[in-house]
């Protein structure tokens, strides 16, 4: 497993360089200590949503999120919404079958956003990880990007997958970790354009 820092990239491949065809993208977060102190009931659940946006030539092609669980080509499938971030492990997961991604799609961007409009300063231990979900390497974590600083915005562009222009079957992951003003996935497309 490779721990990525902001701005780093790595091939989506096994240790021997074989391209990985099926991925599970897991995102996780915890409620920051003290986040509940401002709410009347003493508890303030932070509802974050993971979204995968497919782009082709800089234009939105399709999206998978809590209200549209799969892209039209069936290559990206959201496993369901976690409303609180409670529990250990991944809070939300998205399956990506890179072999089924529609050929014109060249980029898949992963966004985490606060549906209720909370600043992401209220969360801690946020991460995005890529897990090999195919063949002999199934379950092996390929790469992880952990957010170490608070984000004053309501959204966070965690990472993106980019198709290799010289080899359509190969992909690379780029760690981004940039805050954006985004709450609902369907209203977030314009703020993602600068990451393409």
TrEMBL record:
What the entry lists under Pfam families is as follows: TerD
Sequence ranges assigned to domain TerD in this UniProt record: 2-181
The cross-references to PANTHER family, in alphabetical order and at most eight, read:
CAMP-BINDING PROTEIN 1-RELATED (PTHR32097)
Q: What is this protein called?
A: TerD family protein
């Amino acid at each position: 497993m490779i721990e990525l820092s902001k701005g780093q990239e790595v091939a989506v491949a096994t240790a021997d360089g074989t391209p990985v065809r099926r991925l599970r993208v897991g995102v996780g977060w915890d409620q920051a200590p003290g986040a509940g102190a401002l709410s009347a009931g003493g508890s303030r659940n932070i509802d974050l949503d993971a979204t995968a946006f497919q782009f082709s030539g800089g234009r939105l092609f399709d999206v998978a999120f809590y209200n549209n669980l799969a892209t039209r080509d069936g290559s990206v499938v959201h496993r369901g919404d976690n409303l609180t971030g409670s529990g250990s492990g991944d809070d939300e997961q998205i399956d990506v079958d890179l072999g089924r991604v529609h050929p014109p799609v060249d980029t898949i961007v992963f966004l985490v956003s606060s549906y209720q409009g909370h600043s992401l300063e209220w969360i801690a231990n946020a991460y995005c990880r890529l897990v090999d979900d195919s063949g002999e390497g199934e379950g092996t974590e390929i790469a992880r990007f952990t957010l170490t600083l608070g984000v004053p915005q309501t959204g966070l562009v965690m990472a993106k997958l980019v198709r290799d222009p010289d080899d359509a079957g190969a992909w690379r992951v780029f760690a981004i970790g940039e805050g954006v003003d985004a709450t609902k996935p369907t209203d977030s497309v314009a703020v993602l354009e600068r990451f393409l």
